[in-house]
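SAMPLE LOG
Freezer: B-3
Tube label: C17
Construct: single chain, 274 aa
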Amino acid sequence: FKTAFASESDQLITLKNPLSSEYDTMRTSLLPGLLKTAGLNLSKGQKPLKLFEVGSVYFLDSSGKRKEKAVLSAIVLGPYELTPWKSRGGEYDFYDLKGVLETLAEHLCLKLVTSPDNKPYQELGKSVRVQVVGGRELGYLGQMTVENNAVGDLGHAVYALEVDLGTLENSASFQFQSIPKFPETYRDISILVDRSVTSQNVADLILQTGRPLIQAVTLYDHFEGKKIQADKKSLTYALSFQSAERTLSDDEVNPLFETIVQTLKRELGASLRE
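STRUCTURE (predicted):
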């Protein structure tokens, strides 16, 4: 179990005076600890599970030099919680965890690329290496195998990621901005659109139309049912407007809001929901 997560190119650091034979080497991954915690929670009837840990791992590099690096590890497993955003009966999978990593990269202004991976403790064809555009190795992501002892008797498909925080920090390219001095102004918009129209398309169009005063578009309600047409869905967004130079008045925000409404009607065939 303890050697399953050692990279082929790395070597374990052996302790001279270990507390027990189970802990006679330095850890090379945080995943074994997360999996043990998952097993304990499952035995108590807790599911689903979404766990993460930040910590250091240790190994010998190819030249025999001791190395320490900080990593971020996370696992997900089990059925979705009751929420309108997830299908009933579904379970967390590879794409849920991949979305978490992509959201983190987006906040750090990073572009990632993936390629097939073949680590022995991850399912063949269901794991990828993750790199920052430009070639720097960031980590890996995939489904854990059930054949080896690294997963044990969890009884669920387990998806895991582990990324090098040093690489993440050194690759990030963003600038801090001063906190705005003037307050935000909010508007809600609830529209009916064809089911084929994605919520992301709507949000992108609102942001594009509302620039430069619109700062955020947040979807907080999605409804499909008997109260609306069978081929339609209702989407409700919270819009945030703000200026770095002044407090916005209704005379500035209302015309912009109306422009957004008309653009959604023209481009996506949307209509305001009463």
